[in-house]
Amino acid sequence: MSKRDELIAKYAADLKDKCGVNADMDLLTKVTIGCGPSIYNADASTVSGSDDSELATVKNNFLIKKLGLSDGADLDKGIEAVMEQYGKSNRNKYRAVVYYLLTKHFGKETVY
User: Fold this and answer.
1) Cα–Cα distances in angstroms (integers) from residue 53 to residues 7, 26, 48, in the given order
2) What does the mean pLDDT of the chain come to?
3) Which of 17, 34, 41, 91 is deepest in the core (most CB within 10 A)?
4) What pLDDT score does 77 carry?
5) Are 14 and 90 in contact (CB under 8 A)?
6) Cα(70)–Cα(13) distance, rounded to whole angstroms?
7) DSSP characters for 32-79?
8) What is the mean pLDDT of residues 23-35?
9) Which domains occur in the chain, in start order?
10) pLDDT (mean) for 29-33
11) 75 pLDDT exceeds 90?
């Protein structure tokens, strides 16, 4: 099993255990690949739900640039809903899981 496959399995377990979501493994794999090498970096592989600058980066680089969504209050509400679903007290919010949940939240699976 490759390192990436191990991470995808870990993300799927996180989705099931912490978010109550049965992952679409095909989409999760594509989202994980889309994260690039950041998934192998301890700091870059996670998202801080309480860091406004990090959430702004998620909004600009992922929601607007990658998913092609228009900037607006609904993007902030979507990020807030995903952070709530993942669990605000959960310290390790994996970037790939957050991106997967955001992709599902906004119905943008076709991007992948």
Assistant:
1) 25, 30, 9
2) 94
3) 34
4) 96
5) no
6) 31
7) HHHTGGGGGSTTTTB--TT-HHHHHHIIIIIIIIIS-PPPSHHHHHHH
8) 96
9) 3-111 (1.10.238.120)
10) 97
11) yes
